Amino acid sequence: MIRFVYFLIVSILLSLGWSSFNNIPISFIQSLSFGYEDNFMRFSDLEIDSYYNETYTDNDYLGDSKFYDSAIISPSFQATLKPKIKGYKTNMVLKVKFNEYTSSNHKSYFNFSTRFELKLKSYNWIKFSYSLTPKYYLRTFIDRDMLPLNYYPCYFANENVYLSYSFPLPIRLIRKTWIDIKLNLNNQFYNEYFTEYDTKVISLESNIKTSAFKHHFFSIGYFYAVADNISYDNPSGLSESTKIDRSYNKVGLKINAKKTFNKPLISSIGMKLKISKRMYDLDSWYYEFDNWKEYYETDLTIDYSKKINKRATMQVSGKYFFRDVIASQSKETLWVEDYKIYNRNELWLRFIFNFSNK
User: Fold this and answer.
1) By three-state DSSP, how is residue 69 classified?
2) Are 313 and 307 in contact (CB under 8 A)?
């Protein structure tokens, strides 16, 4: 809670300070969100129904938490500088976000992101973004490279870079419709107990977006990703954890729809759906069996918003996530279907405040 208060104070001071630069085109968005998640460490039904003796230490099954669910407090601050470079419209965006989980100090995390946007013409943009979450906690897992087999906190640094290019659909009869292509690079580097999961992911995503119909927005996209389990390349010491290559391929579909209203009780309602399939071959220098597994994930978000005034908006959203898993029935993967299938639900109340000196 102390980190949350500190973050909130700093963001308010920044907004008050930046508003004094009247000659610089700056806008900023502050938001304060209150959320609840019923399975914030992604436990399967079998794991939730099992009994574990807890002493509430970092190396317990639940780590530093006493519960499977948690309330979340999430402030964020975004500043956008809008200079013109040789007549072109540009945006330089800086955003910081903090999530405070009331059930777990380990789960709380900070995220920083920056983005540069260059508008060439209508619906024609080049965007470059970098984001970093220095430490994202998953939960405790058994480190099978060390005896005795104890639980240890598992977390990783998540680094993300993308370059995107959007352009109008080359069909004159279809107005306000454009294509967005994004190349994304993602690095996930784990703490010392779980370096066998270190992964680099490269993905390509394409979306068709349209606002051709008044008060409506719709997009549909497809993405393909290849993940390289970089720590498998050199299985030094022939340790237990490096016997299987955890590289994978992933394909998926995204759908986004939103309708705006000019009514007293509702400003907009939206839906986001993401469906994906992740495929692991689980190649091995040690096992001779046919090891493989596949993850099928569904991520659905519904949100409602209401404008309070010109600067303030209230948003309510709900999210449902489900992962199904199938795997080969070899002794190395037989346990996967019991422990990797899970679902979770989120509910959020968010207050968004927009300010600009222009």
Assistant:
1) coil
2) yes
135's enclosing H/E stretch is: strand 124-142
Residues spanned by the domain of 151: 2-356
Residue 82 corresponds to which tokens in the numbers above?
């809008």
Number of domains in the chain: 1
Q: Both tokens of residue 19?
A: 């508003």
Here the CATH number for the domain that contains residue 223 is: 2.40.160.40
Query: Considering only CA atoms, which of 184, 192, 186 is closest in space to residue 228?
Result: 186
**Distance of alpha carbon 159 from alpha carbon 138, whole angstroms:** 16
* Distance of alpha carbon 334 from alpha carbon 64, whole angstroms: 29
**Per-residue pLDDT tens over the stretch 135-182:** 999 999 988 777 777 899 999 999 999 999 999 987 766 889 999 999
Cβ neighbors of 138 (< 8 A, separation 6 or more) are: 41, 42, 154, 155, 156
Q: Record the pTM.
A: 0.89
Whether residue 342 contacts residue 44, with contact meaning beta carbons closer than 8 Å, is answered with yes
